[in-house]
Amino acid sequence: MADIESLSEAMKAISVSTELVEEELKPHLDVLLNLLLEKKKGTAEKIVSSGVLPILAQVLRKKSPLTSQVTLMVAEMAREAAVRERCIEAGLVTALVPLLNSPDQDQLLHTGRAIGRICFENAVQQTQLVENGVIPRLVAIMQQYPENDPLVNVCLLALCNLADVDAAREALVEVGVAEVLTYQLKRAPDAERRHLILEVLGSLGESDALKLQFVEAGVPEALSEMIRTLQGGSDTHDLCSIKVASNLIVTLLLGDESMQKCFGEGTGMVYQDVLSWLQSANTELQLSGALAVANFARNDSNCVKMLDLGVVPRILDLLEQHVAEGDVSVQHAGLSALRNLAIPASNKVRMLEDGVTERIRTLLRSDMPPVQFKLLGTLRMMVDGQEEAASVLGKDEVLLARVMEWCEAKDHAGVRGEANRLLAALIRHSRNPEVIHTVIKADGVQHLISMATSEHVIMQNEALVALAIASAIDIEAVQEPFRDADLLPTLQKMLDDPVVAVEVKFSALGLICSLANSSMLREQITSLNLRNTLSKLSAHTSTKLAKQADTVMAVLSETA
Question: Which PANTHER family match (predicted)?
Answer without folding.
Answer: RAP1 GTPASE-GDP DISSOCIATION STIMULATOR 1
